[in-house]
Every structure is written in C-alpha cells, then in structure tokens.
Amino acid sequence: MERIQRQRGDLPRDAVLILAWVVHARRQITVPELQEALAVEIDKSALDEDNIPTVDHITRACAPLIAVDTESNIVRLVHYTTQKYLERTRDIWFQNAQIDITRICITYLSFSAFESGFCISEAKFWDTVETNKLYDYAAQNWGHHAHEPFALSWEALEVVDFLEREGILQACSQALMVPKYQHLRYASQMVPRQMTALHLAGYFGLHDVAVTLLARGHDPNIEEEDDTMVKLLLDNGAQPNFQDNNSHLTEFPLLWAAKTGHKEVARLLLEAGADPSAKDSFDGDGRTPLSYAAQRGYQNVMEVLLASGKVDADSRDIDGRTPLSYAFDNKVARVLLASSRVNVDSRDEVGRTPLWHAVDDERLDVVQLLLAYGADRESKDNFGQIPLMKAKEGLEAYKKGNKWPDDLRKSQRVLSLLV
C-alpha cells in the first residue's frame, strides 16, 4: 500500500478508490461496473465517457494487489490474505470508503437518463440495465452502503434530496425490486409501482432518513419490515390497518408481515390495534394473516397472532379453505391443532379436507400428523375422490414421465400412510 501511495499522478487516488470498491462491494464487482464507478463525478447529471479508465489503468494503479478474471470479467484481490489485511487496516486506508461509494451510487442513479421514472417497456428496461453497467449494482446496494456513513453522522439530507426526486425514485425502485419478481414473465412490469421515499428508507433501514422524511411531511402509512422503522412510523401516526386502495401496494401491514415472516413487526402492529382477523382484498382470495403464515411456515408469526386471542384459527377463505389446509409442515400444523377451535376435517367449497390438500402437495409430515389427530382418510370430496385416490395420481404421474425418482419416493411414502 505504501508503494501504491508513492506512484505518480492520479494513480494513488484512483488506487484507493479501486481497492475501496473491491473490498467493500456487497458482491463481486465487474470491470465495466468498476470503470463506470470510477468515472462518476459527484453532482454531475451524466457520465463523461472520457473519464472511464482503461483496464490497464485499473490493474496498474493497484498492482500487484488486484487481478482481473478473464473468464468472468470480475475484479478481485490476488489473495484472500490481501482482503484480510485491507479489512484490518480499513481505518487507515479507507476511512471514507462507504461515504464515497454511497455518493457515487446516488449520483449515478440521479443521472438525467433515469429521470423519466418507471420504465413501462420490458425491453426498454433491460436495455437500460445493459447499457448502464453500474445501474443494477447501484440500485440494489446504495442503501446498504449508506448504513455506515450514517453511523458516522453523515448528513442524511443528501440521501433525502435524492429520494425526493420522484422520477429518479420510481426508476431506482423498479431496478431494486425486479430480482424479487424474476420468476415471473415481464418481471420489470410486475414490480410494485408508486413506491415512496419512506418505502426505500425502510427497505434499507435508514432511520435518520426516515425521520427527516417524516419531518418534511411524508405520509407514514406504508408497509415496512424493520421493527424499529415500524415503531417510528406508528409513533408518527401510521395507521396499523391502513390500506391504500388507490395504489398497487394495497396489502394491509399485518397481512404483509405475516406473508414475510416478520414476528416483531406483527407484534408491534397488533399492539397498535391491527385487526388480525382482517381478510386479504389484495389478491381477492379472502385469506387471513394466519392463513399466509401457516402456508409459508412462519410458526413464530402464527404464535403471535394466536396469542392475541382475536384470531379465528378455523377461518375460511373464498375457496372455503382453512389455515390448516395450507400448513407448510407438521410444526405449523401442530400449532393450529393445539387450538380447540380447529376442525381437522373441515371441508372446503369442493369438499376437500386438510388431509386431501396435504396429500395433494405431498407434505408427508403433515399427512402423518393429521392422521395421528384422527383425520378421516375416507372423506370424499364433491367428486367422490378420497385422499388415497389422490395419492395414487402421484404414482401415475411418474409413470407418464412427469415426475423425478425423488418425487416418486415421496409419492410412495404418502401412499403407504393411507393404505
């Protein structure tokens, strides 16, 4: 490092910034991403391509500490001991690294090219990501890098000003959320629209930013996953049962907490008066928070909901299904069955019981538990089918080539419990 500092011209300054990115990046950084990061000028509205350094410049500035992987195009340190050394001496070499990276990211995201906001074309969105090499990384990670600067009393207003630019906010939010929807066709068009500055402050847990936004009059009625952020919003007037029917984001907070498994958020909302028996109008299926928590295996959230004493553990959705019919595993099912209010043989709109649904999904441990609790294995649905007949369909699917051997073994085990 001392030898690097003795280089001539801009090399020492560039070397420190290059190493700061390589050491502090939240994932491995590629050459094009690093090149654009180094070319960013704070407070400028576009990237000056004349500032983009060559690969030779990058490697020469930091020789012999970094290397470029020719196959992946990733910039990395030559040895893990280098990483350990630089982490150990970060207060010497990288005192302002997170501040610098945060500023580079929000400057990049604020470029005039992104001011038009949410991109309504799937092809155009991906063209934007491909053309602007640092865009994806900056959108995904700027808030994570901002954590340390705020711990060092960095000025929150710089981020607040960034978040209050509506077009920039919507474009950045779209790029941030796309990975969560990548399993869907046209992912960029399926993400939530009209996200707010408080949504992003909450997403990244930037409490100082949230406080400033609230002081500036931003609406606290949003969904959040950070329990301290939720407390802050509730203390500032957020309504625990708020549901914005004019927005794509229409899940009420407790339903969202149940879907995402945030026990402490659920507890805070219940203490603030959230209705645990309210049903979902977002998806139109009439399901309760308990139903979603059961389906997704969030036992701790279920226990908080049931402890409120205000939950119907046997409530039915629009299809007549109860939370027990969605039970993710036997732990979840056991929590429900421990309630005297749960009917092990409840029938949905087509006469199917929790046992039938467990067999259909091949949830082996749930099938075992339901049978142990006396579930009726001979119960017929409205089409005359019993759970055993459904289990046999699993074997037929294998014979037709629609199942892998591991799935066949699961089908055989479920069948063996019912015969």
Automatic annotation (TrEMBL):
Keyword Phosphoprotein in annotation: no
Which SMART domains does its entry note?
ANK (SM00248)
UniProt domain GPI inositol-deacylase winged helix: residue ranges = 13-87
- Which keywords fit this entry according to its UniProt record? ANK repeat, Repeat
Which parts are the ANK repeats? 193-225, 249-281, 285-309, 350-382
Under the heading PROSITE patterns, the entry gives:
ANK_REP_REGION, ANK_REPEAT
Checking InterPro entries in the record gives:
Ankyrin_rpt (IPR002110), Ankyrin_rpt-contain_sf (IPR036770), GPIID_WHD (IPR054471)
Which Pfam families does this entry report, sorted A to Z?
Answer: Ank, Ank_2, WHD_GPIID
Name by which UniProt lists this protein: GPI inositol-deacylase winged helix domain-containing protein
